[in-house]
Amino acid sequence: MAVITTIQDLKEIYQRRVPQMFYDYCESGSWTEQTFRENISDFSKLRLRQRVAVDMSHRTTATKMIGQNVSMPVALAPIGLTGMQCADGEIKAARAAADFGVPFCLSTMSICSIEDVAAHTDAPFWFQLYTLTDEGYTDRLIQRVKDANCSALVITLDLQLLGQRHKDVKNGLSAPPKLTPKTIANLATKWSWGLEMLRTKRRSFGNIIGHIDGISDNRSLSSWTSEQFDQSLNWKKVETLMKKWGGKTILKGILDPEDAKMAVKLGADAIIVSNHGGRQLDGALSSIRMLPQIVAAVAGNCEVWLDGGIRSGQDVLKAKALGATGTLIGRSYIYGLGAMGQKGVTKALEVIQKELDNTMALCGHRDINDVNRDILLVPNDFEGHWA
Fold first, then answer.
1. Per-residue pLDDT tens for 156-182?
2. Staple 306 to which of 1, 31, 132, 319, CB 3.0 to 4.6 Å?
3. CA 75 to chain centroid
4. Which of 58, 166, 276, 365 is catalytic?
5. How far apart are alpha carbons 158 and 169 in whole angstroms?
6. 276 catalytic, yes or no?
7. CA-CA distances (angstroms) from residue 10 to 16, 100, 309, 315, 329?
8. What angle do CA 6, 8, 10 make, to 5 degrees?
9. Model confidence, pTM
10. What is the fold of 7-377?
């Protein structure tokens, strides 16, 4: 049994175990993948200040995200197709998150449905909503979220149209995978994944199939989704969605200070600084580089979280030091899920928390809520000086 000490260790197991098309779906960005890469690499430009001869006993990483107690400032981000990375993946991830004391967010494009996850978990979870043109479906979806007692709605704003992801196009990404000669050859090497998939009934988009007239299988789904992202989305429509929901609302996909100010004006409880994991606008700045400007623009009027590029507890600490109230991890927990199922998600969270706790102490702090920019050495040009 391999000794797992980093998220990279989980990623290597994940790559061996999961079919190529689903690995590529997770581990890719749009176009040249510049933003996807810099989401990760820009964290390394921030250096840490070591402090000594300070009391490091009785440490805590516990805090709150939109009033919810969390064991560390981390939530599991909404990821489409999670149930294709591991059988019943959303249920397993939600259970691991609840046991660890961090929030889980279910994607509109999940394999396990809202009702499935609610029936197989005890803790309330969040739900991520795409802005779609089918208003009737959206209204029914919001009602289903209410019926499942979800505690917050995460509205994704940066997917009005789909970024070009070359690997997904070339792989013919689908759920379940289309059985082409190339796919069959790859699946033959992933027998443990295949055996688990054969044992579950959950192999298509549970929030969509059977919930829309005329959508009964994945062939009709693909044409529906290609037409459904609302390219006419504006702030008025966002406000309408927030009113229909009526509960705690998080706006995801903010990468500009002016958009952050609009989110505050609408009364968002939190905003997520995110470029969709580098999967939408390639060439945009990384989330961590944009974070300080957005924190300044919000001026404490709502919580600011960071999504994108987090692969360690040090990354979480750096985001916290630059003003983030919380963070979201996506690929980091997917690596664990694909590698070892629910235990793998738990292992990913353990790895991140241990490094967060240890690094925080070596920077001279005992409480994550007291961490600030003083622990960092930030390059003068980190946020960029643009003409």
1. 999 988 888 998 888 888 767 777 888
2. 319
3. 8
4. 276
5. 20
6. yes
7. 10, 18, 16, 17, 14
8. 85
9. 0.95
10. TIM Barrel (3.20.20)
